[in-house]
Amino acid sequence: MSHFKSEFFNIMLERGFYNQCTNEEGFDAYLAECEQKGEPAVGYLGSDPTGDSLHVGHIVPLMMLRWFQKCGHKPLTLVGGATARIGDPSGKDKLRPFLSEEALAHNIEGLKKSFGKFLKFGNGKTDAVMIDNWDWFKDINYLAFLRDIGTCYSVNRMLTMDSVKSRLEREQPMSFLEFNYMLLQGYDFCELYQKYGCRAQIAGSDQWGNITSGTELGRRKYNVELFGFTCPIITDSTGKKMGKSEGNAVWINEDKLSAYNYYQYFRNIGDTEVEKCLCIYTDLPMDEVRRLAALKDREINEAKKILAFEATKICRGPAEAEAAEKTAVQVFEQGAAGGELPTIEMSSAEELSVLDAFLQIGFVDSKGEARRLIKQNGLKINDKPVTDENYKLSAADVVDGQIKLSQGKKKHGLIKVA
Q1: Which domain holds residue 194?
Q2: Model confidence over 285-333: pLDDT tens digits?
Q3: Do 298 and 356 reside in the same domain of the chain?
Q4: For the chain, what is the HEC assignment?
């Protein structure tokens, strides 16, 4: 049974995107009214161009914006050409390094590419638009800004915001430059309201303080209710943020990461994360998600293959997803060059030490060589670098009845478990 009036809210709740809203009832009613009239609501997602690609960790709010567009609303993607010159203090211990004009321009182009994979851009009523806040900040008068905007903010209130409070509690220095960040983000929200009729900001929960900075400014300065809507920070079963694989970011743009490696990230997700990832990283209907999530033991690998394919299809397109799926089959089953992979057959791989496994398959001549390669991240189990030389294989390493061993990029072998 639907819990909310608007389609968007119901999708967000059912798929696990909904964390917090500044006025749940008000925003839901506003969206429902827009949906009934066939008039799009306008919402935005901001991203500072500190890098030239988004990664899997950024996809959650981006998928929210994708659903927002599918529900007939208009998404705005705001790049912080101005705010990147300062740095968002949220979750940071120190001031971010300043970027050159060339680096910022390069990064903005990269973000445009990332956003374009998930949203439809164009001139239509519900097409996404990309905006840079440098457009309005570059000519701003400092005294005018202080008088018009600074008077709407209470320093007492700003000091209670998590991004500020946590830095002060840890006794980490915070520059006045960074302290200004929430004023700038609040100003962005109001500019987007005035220029585009934007009344919603969609973001991760770590942005709550910056969002409410904008909703409060809207109320005080323009007597309008702006809405903030956040998603939870998605973590795996160990509590680590999603989007990193062995310390390396899982990038959205193909010049930073191959479609195969993107596919493999989702293919190797933990069993307990499958349902959550199907809900968030794919467009699959919820009935199908529930069916796949109910699979157990070896069958769960079928769900992982579908998750990997569907997530890759959204990000890299159907052709790349099919190629990645095909490569995965070849690498695991026939070997990348089409020949048979070296294989060891065992009744159980339980308790086999990682050093013995690589010695038996013939990729090293001694345990000493295996230890040296482990220190250089040269040995992998199921495409994940081995970091512990005392590691013992277990049932958790068995994927589709086998364990893949790799040395470097070209040597692959299998332990087939009967």
Answers
A1: 7-231
A2: 999 999 999 998 878 989 999 999 999 999 999 999 999 898 888 776 5
A3: no
A4: CCCCCCHHHHHHHHHCCCCEECCHHHHHHHHHHHHHHCCCCEEEEEECCCCCCCEHHHHHHHHHHHHHHHCCCEEEEEECCCHHHCCCCCCCCCCCCCCCHHHHHHHHHHHHHHHHHHCCECCCCCCEEEEECHHHHCCCCHHHHHHHCHHHCCHHHHCCCHHHHHHHHCCCCCCHHHHCHHHHHHHHHHHHHHHHCCCEEEEEHHHHHHHHHHHHHHHHHHCCCCEEEEECCCECCCCCECCEECCEECECCCCCCCHHHHHHHHHCCCHHHHHHHHHHHCCCCHHHHHHHHCCCHHHHHHHHHHHHHHHHHHHHCHHHHHHHHHHHHHHHHHCCCCCCCCEEEECCCCCCEHHHHHHHCCCCCCHHHHHHHHHCCCEEECCEECCCCCCECCHHHCECCEEEEEECCCEEEEEEEC
Q: Which of 222, 217, 213, 209 is nearest to 20 (CA)?
A: 209
> In terms of domains, do 46 and 149 share one?
yes
Same domain for 402 and 360: yes
Number of structural domains, the chain? 3
- Same domain flag for 24 and 52: yes
Q: Report pTM.
A: 0.79
Same domain, 330 and 348: no
402: Cβ–Cβ under 8 A, 6 or more apart, which residues? Answer: 332, 414, 415, 416, 417
Token digits of residue 369:
């060589």
In this structure, are 76 and 207 located in the same domain? yes
Where a domain ends, among 319, 340, 361? 340
pLDDT band, residue 24 (cuts 50/70/90) = very high
- Kindly state the tokens that stand for 415: 């332990």
Q: What is the pLDDT of residues 377-388, one digit of tens each?
A: 899 998 889 999
* 385 inside domain: yes
Q: Print the SS3 string covering 49-62.
A: CCCCCCEHHHHHHH
pLDDT in tens, 338-353: 345 677 888 777 778 9
Closest CA relative to residue 115, chosen from 184, 69, 182: 69
